[in-house]
Amino acid sequence: MNLMEFAIKIAKEAGELTIKEAEKGFKISKKGPRDLVTNADKASEKLIKSAIKKAFPDHGILAEESENDLKEIAKKDFIWIIDPIDGTTNYAHGIPNYSISIAVFATTYSESSKNFEYKGGELIAGVVHAPRLNETFYAAKDQGAFLNGKKIQVSTTKTLQDSVVATGFPYENKEEALPYFEKIVSRAQGIRRFGSAALDLCYLAAGRFDAFWELGLQPWDIAAGALIVQEAGGHLTDLNGAELDLFSKEILASNKHTHQEMIDTLNI
Asked: Is 83 a catalytic residue?
């Protein structure tokens, strides 16, 4: 079993776990005033991490519900980036739009000094599995993007006024996102807010959305989806058009055609 097949397998196993946990009932707690976590999040992450550690003991793991030691993780040649349930609020309320997101980052170079250790590289595999929707999106570097075994491509929509655009709001400081929303809502054909950034990116990759932007995100929210968008022919940057940084907490993704118009509109 290769790395991509393994990632798909454990994503589906975690998806089955979330369904079983929902059927028997789960406990909800809070990481912040509006940021929910369930025992299913923790159980899903435990399943995924255990499988990775057994199959790839030398790999690093960056996961949402763990205490991540970034200095130790940065020493690894391969890093798994995991969101055990992306869209926990949806999941907790019985809404099917949630997903398990798993990506693999491979180191290509490193820089060290007395003050920091930085490793650069690229995403080489990504899986976003939506168990309640029976959809599995995945991509491997330079091999295209797929949904349930069929190749997918971004849309060919040329203008913002003909585009359906997706977004989300951070758990805290939601008011920071409102000016951007107001700029886009008056110009786009429509805006959708489904509650899972990973799925929003995959819907863009499949041509269902034409662009997506969001603030307040973490690497595990976007890593797998970002590679899937890239392999489907899309484009990814920050809101100003600079190269995407998984740790920058913001993202702009598009079908390429609408990208510059999105940048111009967001920065009016």
From this structure: yes
Segments making up each domain of the chain, as ranges: 3-152, 160-266
Give me the catalytic one of 21, 45, 79, 88: 88
Task: Report the chain's mean pLDDT, rounded to a whole number.
Answer: 91
Active site residue 210: no
Task: Answer whether 0.70 is exceeded by the pTM.
Answer: yes
Is 3.30.540.10 the CATH classification of the domain at 3-152? Answer: yes
CB atoms within 10 A of CB 142: 8
245 is catalytic: no
User: What class does CATH assign to 160-266?
Assistant: alpha beta
Q: Is 58 a catalytic residue?
A: no
How do residues 113-145 score in pLDDT, each as one tens digit?
A: 555 555 678 999 999 999 999 999 999 999 999
Q: Of 175 and 257, which is predicted with more confidence?
A: 257
Choice among 21, 45, 64, 250 that is catalytic? 64
Does the active-site annotation cover 221?
yes
- 166-209 pLDDT tens trace: 999 877 777 788 988 999 999 999 999 999 999 999 999 999 99
* Strands (E) located in the chain: 28-30, 36-38, 60-63, 78-86, 99-112, 117-130, 135-140, 145-147, 150-152, 164-167, 190-192, 211-215, 235-237, 250-254
Number of H helices, E strands in the chain: 8, 14
Residue 238 appears among annotated catalytic residues: no
Residues in the chain: 268
